[in-house]
Amino acid sequence: MNTNTNKGEGAMTLIEQYLAAVAAQLPGEKREDIVAELRDALMERIEAREAELGRAMTEAETESLLREFGHPLTVAARYRGGPDHLIGPELFPYWWFALKAALVVLVVVVGIGAVLSVAVGQASPVDAFADIWEGLLDGGLMIIGLAAIAGFVIERQPNRPRFMTDWKVRDLELFRHWSLNGDGLNLAMGDETAPKTAMSKVARRNRSRAAEALWCVAIWAVFLLWWGGGFRLGGLDPQTLLASAAALLPGVSRDGAMEGLVQPLYWPVIAYGLVRIGLELARAASPHMAVPVALGDLVMAGASAAILAWVWTRSVLAPVAVIDSPEQLIERTTDLFRGHFSLSHILVLILIFNALEIVGRVLGALRRLATARA
């Protein structure tokens, strides 16, 4: 370690204070070696400067030299392992895509909640409009915070997700569609006279698996935030809102809907949503894990079918939704097409659509198992 007894005591105090500030930011096992290296480098610069001046440096000149050397936080960052940013440039496009998707879902969900709160008589239109902004603020801040935490964790993993390293050209489509300045792009692809409808079909066919997975994660994340009470729709907690909506059906009270529908579904819905998010993250991180993800989809389809069967046969809605025969199913469906939009008819239609969606998911999972492709 180089020292110089001609140095002013004040200048040396500044140097030691500077090195102490740097040392506080360094890992303990390397601190002494790094500080010794920095002290030598600083002393060499000071000696060179004093040789130019022909005298000892003043405190002001020493402080100016230390500012040139760099702020202690910046200097210490050069010696720390790992990234020095919250979300790096490689991960950021995917993170930004998922965040925008979640915020779009939030706007839609909060808007629907405000309309439902007015429909069930729990809020006036003026109150519902005010609650929209409250829901967007609360939900938006929570989503941004959780997204930042997720990005921080992913950025510091030893291995990058597969969708970042093993990407395909079709994955780039999501960046064009979600760019703030990409809507006006008119790029020729072989034939400049090709109709836009054909281009749109190609785009739909080449949708990124990663983009679809991130969309699903965003939807379920927003829903679980709402379901768990992270923010309210129309000023109401999710359980009260759902029970109030169910109470519009004939023969169903709000208390009965709360005890016979909402409360029994609370934890199963949370568990289902968390597993769904896990599967979609696995699909996005490793698009080639077709077989494990397909098996997971089959399990989730079975869980969906069990929940749907419970709602249809055992919940407080069962008397309204029950269908005793195929003829009654056909009758209720044709009534809807004839314009008979009673709440019980609409409920049956919703249950039918959910059943068809489950069947479609099972068939898709079986196809992926058979072909071992995502």
What keywords describe this structure?
374 residues; mainly alpha; disordered N terminus
Structure description:
The protein has 374 residues and is an all-alpha fold. It has 16 helices and no strands. The chain has helices at 9-23, 31-53, 59-69, 72-77, 92-119, 125-155, 162-165, 173-177, 196-205, 209-227, 238-246, 254-285, 290-313, 318-321, 326-337, 343-371. The longest helix has 32 residues, at 254-285. It is elongated.
Number of helical elements: 16
Distance between the termini: 61 Å
Q: Helix-strand pattern, N to C?
A: HHHHHHHHHHHHHHHH
Uncertain spans:
1-7, 179-207
Report the portion of residues in β strands: under 5%
Q: How many beta-strand runs?
A: 0
Globally, the shape reads elongated
Estimated structural class: mainly alpha
Helix content: over 70%
